[in-house]
Specification:
Elements lengths: L16 H26 L7 H23 L7 H23 L1
């Protein structure tokens, strides 16, 4: 039986740079989606054309957040929890836009 020692690694960085960029794109994308849905409900489905453009921008931001979230796993800096959280936010964004597109 091999005797493996646990290796602990300490980092001065709280989050990886790619994770921060993923949050910067993911959270505003989620806010744009929520704003679009609430605005459409208030206007009873007669929302202006800019809502479509806003959702398109939110989709582009969500895909960008997803890509940077994937890239953040290659970095040794930061914790895994923030990387997972940024990925979950971007996946929620993409799923919400797909659901809105279907309905």
């Amino acid at each position: 039986m091999l005797n493996r020692k646990k290796v602990y690694r300490f980092s001065d960085e709280i989050m990886a740079g790619d994770t921060i960029i993923s949050f910067i794109f993911g959270i505003p994308s989620l806010l744009c989606i929520l704003f679009s849905v609430i605005y459409s409900i208030v206007l009873k489905g007669k929302a202006a054309d800019f809502i479509g453009y806003l959702l398109l921008a939110a989709f582009i931001m969500a895909v960008t957040a997803f890509i940077f979230g994937l890239l953040s796993y290659k970095s040794q800096d930061g914790g895994v929890l923030t990387k997972r959280t940024s990925m979950i936010i971007s996946l929620i964004d993409i799923a919400a836009i797909v659901v809105l597109y279907i309905f």
